[in-house]
């Protein structure tokens, strides 16, 4: 077994800071979204993806891949969103086993109302604490990590 490549002091500080920031920031933005809009983070992700998609529809399988969820988990979540009138589910015309998730008028209204509040929460709790240079460096760093992770899949 090879020896672990332990983190040095700078790496350890960065990693622990990132983990704490990630947890605290997600919790706060999710609280704001729930309190101000009555939506969960997954609700917002589904609705925003559908609102940006051609004809406001997305294959369940592709949406699950995008959200890094299993199809089963997403299907259950979509069922709850259907019960609230935010989305509908249609049979897929080119695959009898597949389903297409479609944004409803109520879902469109919900995302249009939530988007400005969501971006304000992100700005208030994240970007307002960073300089422009830090934002640019963060963008470079996150893309480097994402590209490295994608190369492994």
TrEMBL record:
It comes from the Bacteria. Residues 11-147 form the HTH marR-type domain. InterPro entries: HTH_MarR-typ (IPR000835), MarR/SlyA-like (IPR039422), WH-like_DNA-bd_sf (IPR036388), WH_DNA-bd_sf (IPR036390). GO terms for biological process: response to stress. SMART domains: HTH_MARR. One of its GO terms (molecular function) is DNA-binding transcription factor activity. Pfam families: MarR. This is Transcriptional regulator, MarR family. It comes from Kibdelosporangium aridum.
